[in-house]
Amino acid sequence: MHLGQKIRLVPNKVHATYFAKAAGTARFAYNWGLARWQELYQASLADPAQLKPNEAALRRQLNAIKREQFP
C-alpha cells in the first residue's frame, strides 16, 4: 500500500525570496482579517442593528484597499 511521497524543495535565491514574501503576505492578510473581524464583531455586539462580519465582506474590503494602503 502506497500512502504518500516525500518531496524536498531545493529553491534557488529567487525562489526562496518569493516563498518568504508569499508566507509573509498570507500572515499579514490573516492578521488584518482577524483584527478587522474582532473590531466589527465588538461593534455588532454594542449595536445590534449592525450586521455581524462575514468572510466575503472582509475579503472584498481587503481587496479594495490593498493596492493603495499596502503596496
Pick out its properties:
71 residues; mainly alpha
In DSSP terms (H or I, runs of 4 or more residues), the helix count works out at 2
Q: What is the average per-residue confidence, as pLDDT, rounded to a whole number?
A: 92
Distance between the termini: 49 Å
Oligomer: single chain
Order of secondary-structure elements: HH
The count of DSSP E runs of length 2 or more, i.e. the number of strands, is 0
Radius of gyration: 19 Å
Structural class: mainly alpha
Shape: elongated
Instruction: State which percent range the strand residues make up.
Output: under 5%
What's the short story on this structure?
This protein has 2 helices and no strands. The chain is mainly α and 71 residues long.
